[in-house]
Amino acid sequence: MKKLLSLITVMAVILTLIPFQSTFAATPASKVRVSDKVWVGNMEAQHGALVTFTEDSNNAWEDTQNLTLRLPDGVSWNKFTRINARLINMADVDGRDLTIKLVNTKNIDRIVLDPYFDIERSVEKGDLVLRVYRGDVADSDKELVVAEIKDYGAKLTSSDIAEFNFIKPGSKEVVVYLEEFIDGSLVDTQTYDLEVENAEIDKAKGIEIKRLTGDKKLTATMNGDYVKLNVDKTPGKSKWELKFTITPEKEYEGDIVLNLEGRGVEDSITLGTVLKNVDMMTGTATSIGLGFQDQDVAGIEITEMERGTLLKGVYTIAINPEYKGLVFTDAKLNVTEGNIDIDNFEYRDGKFVFEVKSASTRASKIVINDIKVTVDQFGYLGDYKGELIFNHDKSDQIKIDEEVLFTATGSKPSEGQAKYVGQFIIGSPSFIITTNGINRVETFDVAPYIQDNRTMMSVKAAGVALDAKVSYDADKKMVTVESGDTKATMTIGSKILNINGEEKEMDTEAVISNSRTFIPLAFLADVFDAELKWDNVTKTVTIMKN
């Protein structure tokens, strides 16, 4: 049999399945867990947090031991208190002490305390601490916070967080719950304010209120940007469901918060979130000279983090500042990832324009490359930004993102620089390449990865990364890399690197993965006098070659 308690029968095991907030240190006899701390008031029959005592091992609780639970001064046990789902015998209560007598049996046992308290008006606000004694000895590890005494207790909750698209957020209905946890927390002589941050409540639709528990009536009145709440004189505590429609502020990204404030009541919850889920990126800003023709500038990437983020419609990359003497003479647009349908790409009136004919069902990436620009000698000196805009010059225009495209200087950049820089992130198929100060973005069908502390790259990507010519002989399973007077070869499955006829052993080998040939970058970089830099935080590799 299970161990018997002299005043109760062990039953209602379902109570032991309630989730717990914290676990207290174990003693040789038992472990104690307390569920989430609750709010209570200075009045009778206040319901505290569930407490579970579990025997550490067989026979850990001795026959002669008592388990005593002591409340602080001014707090007494209420008759509604239950142990293992049975009401306590008030004969086992002596003032502030509730005693549980233990009887030894073979199996590990559990006691579940569902406490109710009578709290005098004189008891100070703050944590209500239950102290545990085994026999006549206080257990120092078992001072349990089972409630917090407050003047008032009312909280907001929400079952779901609404998600909005940054580009076209629209409006959504939200449902929140307002509940009193202490009798009389909301009173008829006071007004309580509800305010939504970073969104507006649809005043025309108003607020629909439904009482779920209790007898109080709650009413709502729109007052500018606020909602005024009032209750009637009915005593007790109640819970209500509130439904209303919200619209996020234009060009806002982040959480939408609902605040409640009034006499002794203050709470906040998150109602929704506006997700941008699209990012525009350029390479390092290129320096161009005023008065020179057809200068190369950095490429542009527009990346969706979630499918369908870029909605159907017209998008513009506007140049800021605007200048009539600035002209883009060439550019190409490609979709390198996903399946977004793009059409009608052109440059007109100082802006790149393209149309999304249908939204993606797989997150997509749009790349604009081979951009050439001319700015006359009277142009603005400094940064020129590209601003990605949806529905440009319309009433519902949204600026999605911006990046510096190039920087104008007073003279043409030096032609004498020959430095080549490649930069990529492990796991990403995109590369930012800078040649003689000119940037471009290239994207491949597979991404570099780390194997045995070596960066492995596809043959095609390695050619770009090293500014070299790379070829693959499928019959011989041989990779050839050439740059200048240097020629290096390696064979799939072999650790031998052949450099102009001389062999060098590597600590890794070329491999085939996902139907692509991958080669170790570090050994080839050394062969072709390229310097590698590794950023462990961002997992970024930078290749510099003169």
TrEMBL record:
Keyword Signal: yes
Parts of the chain that traverse the membrane: none
Keywords from the UniProt entry: Signal
Domain Copper amine oxidase-like N-terminal: 442-543
SUPFAM superfamilies per the UniProt record, alphabetical: Copper amine oxidase, domain N
InterPro entries: Cu_amine_oxidase-like_N (IPR012854), Mao_N_sf (IPR036582)
Position of the signal peptide: 1-25
Protein name: Copper amine oxidase N-terminal domain-containing protein
Species of the source: Acetoanaerobium noterae
